[in-house]
Amino acid sequence: MFLEDQALPKILLVDDQPTVIHQLNNIVKDFGKTYFATNGRSALEMVHQHKPDLVLLDIEMPDFNGYDVCRAIKAIDEFANISIIFITSRVDPASEVIALELGGIDFISKPIVPEVVRARIKNHLSLARQRQELQRVSGELGFLVSSLPVFVAYWDAQLNNLFCNDSKGSWFGIEALQMRNMALRSVVGGQIYHQIIQSLDQSVLQDIPSFDINIVAADGRSVVGQVALAGWNFDPGASGYLMVITDISERKQAEQCLEEEKERIRTTLNSIGDAVIATDTQGRITLLNPVAEELTGWSAARAIGKPIEAIMQLTDGEAGPPVQNPIRLALEEERPVGMALNTFLSNRLTKSIGDDVTAAPIVDQDGNITGTIIVFHNVSEARAMATKMTHLAHHDPLTNLPNRTLLYDRIQQALNSCHREGSVVALFLLDIDHFKAINDVHGHVVGDNLIKQVALALAEKLRDGDTLCRQGGDEFIMLFPRIESTTCVTQVAERLLDVFDRTWTVDENAFRLTASIGISLVPDDAEDVESLYRHADAAMYSAKSAGRKQFLFYSADIESKLQLHRMLEANLVDALANKAFEVFYQPKINVLDGKIVGTEALVRWRQPDGSLTNPASFIPLAEETGLIIPLGKLVLAQAFKQASVWQQQGFDLRVAVNISVVQFEDDNFLAMLDEIVRETGVTASLIEMEITESLLVKDVERVNSIFAALNTRGFRIALDDFGTGYSNLSYIKNFPFDVLKIDQSFVRNMLGSQVDQNIIQAIIQLAQGMNLRLIAEGVETIEHVQALQAMGCEVMQGFYYSPPLPLADFNRLLTRRISLPE
After folding, report:
1. Which CATH superfamily groups domain 10-143?
2. First vs last Cα of the chain: how many Å apart?
3. Where in the chain is CATH 3.30.450.20?
4. Which ranges of 3-109 would DSSP assign to H, the alpha helix?
5. pLDDT tens, 576-627?
């Protein structure tokens, strides 16, 4: 029986008599897996399909006899090793001869004797199994030998080849089959042959030393081979040699590279700027490079073999006590060891070597310490340079004053003392007013000279313990760590401003300077460095905004205003993307028929939480900082676009837009309007430009030219807040206005003030006399409506009719008539 872990043999039973097949199956079924065929053609199909290990084949079959089947099977290489046993009732020797000649391995005669059949089949299956095992082992051995990355060959006593694994001829250009029976000299050439003969002559069979040879391989590569020879005489009448040649080219190349690397290391050690000393495990010198020779005063020849302490005499400080050499600690603790920072090397020239020094053990592949190495250098110059660099890192290069880095450290120290002692700390930010103009006109050389003069003058006003810092440009910071009272702070600020009350000269140039100062106090205004600085900066910004040449203390209002400015600026940078600014619309109503005849576009600033910021809190700031230019463009673009949309929808609405004085004075004002008109396609006559009276006292000639340009383009011009400022009849007469608006301050008080009623009556009569459209704003009650209508005002605007509305709400309002009072 076959072992369970081996595949069961396949047995094909071929006979034209089913009873015989049944009998044979009973006999052999426990030997393997059986298959059946009742004629020769189906037998061949079963062979192709199942590839049996053994075929029991009947000779006499009607269509295709057993001999023909056997002949067909053996003709195919894939099936040539299938064992075939013939079964027949013939008993003549001629039949057996034919069967054996065709490749059969046995002959079973009918009638079948089960015991004989079982015995024969068992023997043949066992032989087949052994043959397969031999073939497998032989194949594996052959594959192994042929796959070895070495040249393997057997030679007889006369050095003729018996076997070689070089099937492709990669070593000597001769394939294994071609090499069979060739003489050794013919294979390897004369030079290698003589090396082999010499090695054999100088040794005995059991002790043939290996040697190296140089070969030009079949592919043209230069190969270094290591030859190993061994004698063999396994058969009494035969002896010879086993030859193995190993390619050691890479090893030789690695050895060469190692030698080159060692030479590079030697060259490097002799060339680097660091001193290098190596020792053995006892701390005795084995190597000094030239820099180490220079620093220690010892030559390598004299130092070799001496203890490290004799060569490197180390002290703690320039004249301090001796210190242990780090090499000893590296050997003792088996780890890299640094050197103390204040270590000096004592020799004929005392040198500081404390920085960047490392002593480390040298460990071999097995982890054993074979010595140590120490690397160091002279850091005397480096320390001097570091001191200089530290100063430069903390001081302004122009004035040599402390810079912001050093100042922040001193502020933190002052805050710590303040918290402990309960004292007051003051921080001043001083900025020279309009200093940029000096740099632009006279150049930075003159500007730098002035900055240095100012720095010296300010420093004279400070006490010991105070800090004056320049953080760049024309800005100075002063820290006063111990202040007795706010009065003292005021006195100091006044003295600093007085410093500028003089004439400053550079070469032939004379200058008058002023400064603005912002002041922040601890603990009143801040508790940490950042907030202290930020608050002083906010106060200084407010001092400049308030007219310059003054000092201001920080307050919450200043901080709020500064934060609002920053928020406004940040939102305007990407206003279209974040939709922070929206345009609301307040209707203008004709009280005679309740129709909406126009609207005023009003900007609203929506915060992240959805709330709206009052325009009164950011429009003045936008005008003050110039941010009104991009903000105004945004409002104009949205209003123009919406006016065009309403016109396309059939609504004849005039849209009024407030124009700031800053916008009006901008050189690009008209060009910006032209650009928006082109982009939106709006009809200019639908737009009213509302300007305030303060604009009229500006450059009259320029104002008139811009008004003329607006009229030429088709825009309407409305005078807003008429009667509250500088207006008089000459302004009204000289400028081409289309609309007068009655200011809401008159409307709000008219019911209780006869003076306000008289003013409104006069404005209405003036507008009627000059054929100007008239609008009253601030209408909040029915009484306002009735009184204004009685005076002759027909168009009104105010909360009585509607507050300013988002666009969607205003659109809904357009679809219905406004309810009029009865």
Report:
1. Response regulator (3.40.50.2300)
2. 123
3. 148-252, 272-383
4. 18-28, 40-50, 66-74, 93-101
5. 456 788 999 999 999 988 899 999 999 998 887 888 887 887 787 777 777 8
| Contact criterion met (CB below 8 Å) for 821 and 786 | yes
Residue 710 exposed, middle or buried by CB count within 10 Å (0-12, 13-18, 19+) = buried
Residues of the chain with pLDDT under 50: 1-5, 205, 348-350, 355, 576
C-alpha 235 chain-centroid distance: 74
Q: Which CATH number is 272-383's, of 3.30.450.20, 2.130.10.10, 3.90.380.10, 3.30.420.10?
A: 3.30.450.20
Torsion from C-alpha of 697, 702, 708, 714, nearest 10 degrees:
-80
- Run of H or E residues at 169: none
The string over 783-805, giving b where at least 16 C-beta atoms fall within 10 Å of a residue's C-beta and e elsewhere, is ebbebbbebebbbbbbebbbebb
Q: How far apart are CA 810 and CA 201, in angstroms?
A: 118
Alpha carbons 499 and 514: distance in angstroms, whole number: 9
Query: How many C-beta neighbours within 10 Å does residue 647 have?
Result: 16
**Please, which residues have CB within 8 angstroms of residue 708's CB and are 6 or more apart in sequence?**
736
SS3 26: helix
In the chain, list all ranges with CATH 3.30.70.270.
395-554
Q: CA-CA distance, 239 to 57, in Å (whole number)?
A: 48
38 exposure class (CB count in 10 Å sphere: 0-12, 13-18, 19+):
middle
Residues 605 and 581 sit within 8 Å (Cβ to Cβ): yes
The number of C-alpha atoms within 13 Å of 157 and in the hemisphere containing its C-beta is 7
What CA–CA distance (Å, rounded) separates 783 from 436? 58
Q: Which CATH number applies to 148-252: 3.40.50.2000, 1.10.3210.10, 3.30.450.20, 3.30.70.1140?
A: 3.30.450.20
Q: Which residues contact 273 (CB under 8 A, 6 or more apart)?
A: 291, 377
Return the exposure string of 301-322: e unless at least 16 CB atoms fall within 10 Å of the residue's CB, then b.
eebeeeebeebbbbbeeeeeee
The predicted structure's pLDDT at residue 556: 60
Asked whether 767 and 722 are in contact (CB, 8 A), the reply is no
The pLDDT value given to residue 584: 96
pLDDT value of residue 225: 85
Give the Cα-Cα-Cα angle 542, 547, 549 (nearest 5 degrees): 95
Residue 428, strand partner residues:
478, 519
3-class DSSP assignment, residue 201:
helix
Task: State the pLDDT at residue 341.
Answer: 63
- Model pLDDT, residue 284: 93
Give start-end residues of each CATH 3.20.20.450 domain in the chain: 573-814
Task: Locate all alpha helices (DSSP H) within 528-687, ordered by sequence.
Answer: 529-545, 556-573, 575-578, 615-625, 628-648, 661-665, 669-680
What are the tokens at 731?
A: 């302004």
Q: How far apart are CA 692 and CA 603, in angstroms?
A: 17
Question: Could you tell me the two tokens for 186?
Answer: 């013919």
**Containing H/E element for 779?**
none
Pick the CATH number of 573-814 from 3.40.50.1170, 2.70.50.60, 3.20.20.450, 3.30.470.20: 3.20.20.450
- Tokens at 450, concatenated: 């002035």
Query: Domain spanning 395-554 has what CATH number?
Result: 3.30.70.270
Q: Residue 428: in which H helix or E strand, if any?
A: strand 424-432
Those residues whose C-beta lies under 8 Å from the C-beta of residue 269, and which sit 6 or more positions away, are 276, 287, 289
Task: For 110-157, write each residue's pLDDT tens digit.
Answer: 888 888 788 888 877 877 777 776 666 655 665 666 666 788 888 888
Helices (H), 208-352: 249-271, 290-296, 300-303, 308-311, 326-333
pLDDT of residue 767: 87
